[in-house]
Amino acid sequence: MDQAKLISLKIHVILGLVIATCVVLGVYVMGLFGIHMVWPAFFIMISFFLMGADVKNLPTIMIGAISGLVFAFLLCTALTPLQNAIGDPAATLLLVWIAVFLIAALGEVLPHVCNNYAFAYFTIALAVIPLLIEQAIGAAMMEGVTDPAALADLSAKVLVGNSVEWGLVALLGGGGVLALIIACITLLRKAGVLPPAEAGH
């Protein structure tokens, strides 16, 4: 292996150590607060690095993440009334169509709100929320809760609770871990352990 490859390997090993340590520390800290579904934080970090690790992209990533969660929340909120009105799968398909259309069509007008990050968070939230509601209702019914109003109230609580939690995890968890990673890399660059940013790393 030539000298350039050895230097590149050393840099990537150091970056890997920094990122892995910060991610695990972030997961540990979030776990202390009882937060175990940490995917919103991870997707903030993944999106950041996929976009070239440029801090200028963070507002678009974070606002898009929150808007995607809001789209999923609004869809789930409107789903039951619309199902009662027109039935399923028509209700689900119509609401998904509206949400996807808005995200795609308004990208030029509201690029911070309607973008690929919004679509990613919308998709994941929409896949996970029904499973969480189903689990909560199943657990309640095993405990003898059968009142439709109580089960509907439980569903609403699961929807609201998880939507708020995911938003906070994305902003505070993802943002906090990213801030720690950037701070560590900056310190290592100042100490000469890593080359400066303009060197292409």
Record keyword descriptors for this entry.
single chain, 201 residues, mainly alpha, 6 helices, elongated
Describe the structure.
The protein is an all-alpha fold and 201 residues long. The chain has one domain. Helices cover 78% and strands 0% of the residues. It has helices at residues 3-32, 39-50, 58-86, 90-105, 116-142, 148-190. Helix 1 runs antiparallel to helix 6 (148-190) and helix 3 runs antiparallel to helix 4 (90-105).
Topology:
Layout: H1 3-32, H2 39-50, H3 58-86, H4 90-105, H5 116-142, H6 148-190
Helix pairs in contact: 1-6, 2-3, 2-6, 3-4, 3-5, 3-6, 5-6
Care to count the β-strands?
0
Q: Output the structural class.
A: mainly alpha
Q: Termini, distance in Å? A: 19 Å
Largest sheet: none
Number of H- or I-type helical stretches: 6
The percent range for helix content is over 70%
* Shape verdict: elongated
Write down the Rg. 21 Å
Instruction: Determine the mean pLDDT.
Output: 90
Number of domains: 1
Tell me the strand percentage band: under 5%
Unreliable segments of 5+ consecutive residues: none
Topology pattern, helix = H, strand = E? HHHHHH
